[in-house]
C-alpha cells in the first residue's frame, strides 16, 4: 500500500483549514479539518474521491483516519471554554476589561461570551486600568467573583496598587474578615516585535507578594484546569497567559473535557522524565525546554522537564525531589535574571534538602538583562533560545 | 495668498476663541500639502510593508488625521516640546524626522530613528518625547490638569478625538464626550481636526494663551482615522464601511486643502500632481532603504541602558555569557 500525504495549510483571517491528502491505493481521501477560534470541536468533512471504479476501504485506512481525528484544542479556546463554563456555573462570575465584550477580546480569548451572557456579565471598560481594576476589587469584596482582564500585564502596572494593596493584602490586614476572590488575567511576557513597553514578564514582581497566588499555564490543559481553579479560588489570583501560546494547539485528554476538571494551584507537573538533569520552566519556555530535551536525548542526555504551572506558591518539593534524582538543575524563564523566578528556585534549593545532592552549581537561563529591543535580530537574541538551553545543560553536566 | 473662512471653535471658559478666518499663503499651502501627502503615503506604504511582514509587532497608522499633526506644528515652533501616544508616525515627521528614518525604524534597521531598538511606538527627535505605548487614559490626566493649572504651566493638552478608543466608541467609554470641557477649570477649544487651517489657528491661539502666562489650555481636535486601531484591527467590526467612506469623501484633510488651493488659483493641478509624484518617489526611496538597510549589529544589543555611565557588563541568557554595554 502506497501512502503519502501532503499537508497544506491555508490560513484565512479567522479559520484554519488543514488539507490532508492521503493517497491510499487508488483512493484519494480529502479530509477537511476545520477549527475556528470559537468552535472547539473539529468540524470534519470527509469526502472520498474515487480515482478508480472500485475502491477498498482497508481497516488500516480507518485507523489512520482515527489518528488524525484526535482532539486538538488551542490555548485560546481552552481559556474561552473555561470562562464559559465558570460563567455558566456561578452567576457571581463576570468578566471585565478593555474590548472583552463587543470586540470579542483584544486577542479573541473572550470570543462569543458577550453574545451569550450579555452586558451584565461581560463588561467593556474605558481605557483606564487603575479605575476598572479598583472597581473589580470592590466587586470582589462585595461578594462577586470578577475576572479582571488586562490587555497585557504591562498595562497592569497602571493598576498595580489595586492588585497588591487592595487585593493581595486585604485578607491579612482584616485578620480574615474580608476576602477578595478575584482573578487578574491577561498575556504576560515577550511577544513578537512589540518592543520595550509591551514585553515585560511580571512573574517575579507578582510572585514576590504574599497574599497573591500567581499562576503561569503552558499547555491548553494547563490553561483550562488552572483558570477554572483560579476562578473558584477565594483568593486573588494573577493568571499569566502568553500571547504566543494562544494559537498553539494541544491534545486534550478525555478527562480534561469535564466541566469540573481542575488543576490544583501550587503543583508542578513533570512533562518529561529524565535522569541526568532537571530543567524547570514555566509558560512558553516549557516548549523550548522540551525541544531542547529532544535534541539532547539524541546525544544520550535525558532531561527531566518540569512545568511549574504555578509561580506562587512555588512547588519546591517537586523540584527538590527531581534534583535529588538527577543531581543537576537549570531553570529557564523569559523574564529578566535579577531577582527573578530562577533566582528564587535556586535559593530554595540552596536552603533545602536537595542542595547536598547537587553535583554542579544550579544555573538560570533567562532573558537578557535589557529592555526589549524592537529589531528582529536583537529581539531574537534577547530571549532564551533552544541553543542557550542546550548549551547550559551541557555546561552544567560537564562542570 | 488668500483668506479662508474656517469653522468656529466651541469654547469652554474662554471669552473668545480663535479667529474665524485664516490667511494662507501659496508657500504655506504647498508646504502643508506636501507634508500631509507625505504622511499619507508613508502610512499607506507602511500598511503594505506590514502586510508583507516586513514591519512587525504593533503598527498604529495615522492616515486621516494628517491635518492634526501638520496644523499643530504650523502653530508652534520646533523648540517647543511635544509628547504623544503610540500613533506617532505623523508627529515624528513634523518634529524633524525624515521618512527614511521613520520607515527604517518600522522595519527595525540600523538606520532607523531609534537605531531599530524602538519600533513603531517609540520614535524620538529633539524636543519630541515619543511615541509611548501605554496610556493611562484618565486618572493621570486629571492629576496633570490640576498641577498644570495650579502652577500655571504653559501646557497645551490636545485630545485627538477620532471617535473610537480601539474598538470602543466614545459614547460607550466616556460619560461626557465633550472632551474640551473636561479640563473643568482649564479653558478649552473644540476644533475641526480635519481642516489644517482650523487646527493651525486654534494652535496659535492656544500657544499665545500659554506664552502670555495664562496657564494651561485644552484642545479637542475632532478627527478620524481611516485604518483600524492598529494593523491587527480591520476597523470594521465596530464601525461601518459607509461611515469610513463618508468621511473620506466629505472631510478628507488633503482633499480639503487641495480644493481650497485650486479654487483660489493658488496652485495648478499640474503643480500638485508634481508634488504627488515627488512624494511618491520619496516614499519609494525610503521604503527601499528601509527594506535593504541591514539590521542593527548584535553588539548594539546591550547599549543605551544608562546615560553618561562607564561601560559595564550585562548578563546574557546564561551565566557564561557576558555582554558589553556602553552609554
UniProtKB/TrEMBL annotation, chain A:
What is this enzyme's catalytic activity, as reactions? N(6)-[(R)-lipoyl]-L-lysyl-[protein] + pyruvate + H(+) = N(6)-[(R)-S(8)-acetyldihydrolipoyl]-L-lysyl-[protein] + CO2
The Gene Ontology terms for molecular function here are:
metal ion binding; pyruvate dehydrogenase (acetyl-transferring) activity
Keywords of the record, alphabetical order, are: Carbohydrate metabolism, Glucose metabolism, Membrane, Metal-binding, Mitochondrion, Oxidoreductase, Potassium, Pyruvate, Thiamine pyrophosphate, Transit peptide, Transmembrane, Transmembrane helix
In terms of CDD domains, this protein maps to: TPP_PYR_E1-PDHc-beta_like (cd07036)
Entry EC no(s): 1.2.4.1
Please name the GO terms of the biological process aspect recorded for this protein, alphabetically: glucose metabolic process; pyruvate decarboxylation to acetyl-CoA
**Pfam families in the record:** Transket_pyr (PF02779), Transketolase_C (PF02780)
Going by the record, the broad EC class of this enzyme is oxidoreductase
Cellular component aspect of the GO annotation: mitochondrion; pyruvate dehydrogenase complex
Query: Required co-factor?
Result: thiamine diphosphate
Annotated compartments: Mitochondrion
Q: Which residues form the Transketolase-like pyrimidine-binding domain?
A: 73-248
Q: Where are the transmembrane segments?
A: 6-24
Could you tell me what this protein does?
The pyruvate dehydrogenase complex catalyzes the overall conversion of pyruvate to acetyl-CoA and CO(2), and thereby links the glycolytic pathway to the tricarboxylic cycle.
Q: Do you know which NCBIfam families this protein is assigned to? A: PRK09212.1, PRK11892.1
Q: How does it assemble?
A: Heterotetramer of two PDHA1 and two PDHB subunits. The heterotetramer interacts with DLAT, and is part of the multimeric pyruvate dehydrogenase complex that contains multiple copies of pyruvate dehydrogenase (E1), dihydrolipoamide acetyltransferase (DLAT, E2) and lipoamide dehydrogenase (DLD, E3). These subunits are bound to an inner core composed of about 48 DLAT and 12 PDHX molecules. Interacts with DLAT.
The protein here is known as: Pyruvate dehydrogenase E1 component subunit beta
Lineage here is: Eukaryota, Metazoa, Chordata, Craniata, Vertebrata
What gene does the UniProt entry assign to this protein?
LOC109076924
From TrEMBL, chain B:
- Name of the encoding gene: LOC109062383
Q: Which InterPro entries match?
A: DH_E1 (IPR001017), PDH_E1_Alpha_Subunit (IPR050642), THDP-binding (IPR029061)
- SUPFAM superfamilies given in the database record: Thiamin diphosphate-binding fold (THDP-binding)
Names of required cofactors: thiamine diphosphate
GO annotation terms (biological process): pyruvate decarboxylation to acetyl-CoA
Domain Dehydrogenase E1 component spans what residues?
Answer: 137-297
For this protein, the record's PANTHER family field holds:
PYRUVATE DEHYDROGENASE E1 COMPONENT SUBUNIT ALPHA, PYRUVATE DEHYDROGENASE E1 COMPONENT, ALPHA SUBUNIT BACTERIAL AND ORGANELLAR
Known Gene3D superfamilies for this protein? 3.40.50.970
Q: Which GO terms describe its molecular function?
A: pyruvate dehydrogenase (acetyl-transferring) activity
**What's the protein called, per UniProt?**
Pyruvate dehydrogenase E1 alpha 1 subunit a
Task: Report the Pfam families cross-referenced here.
Answer: E1_dh (PF00676)
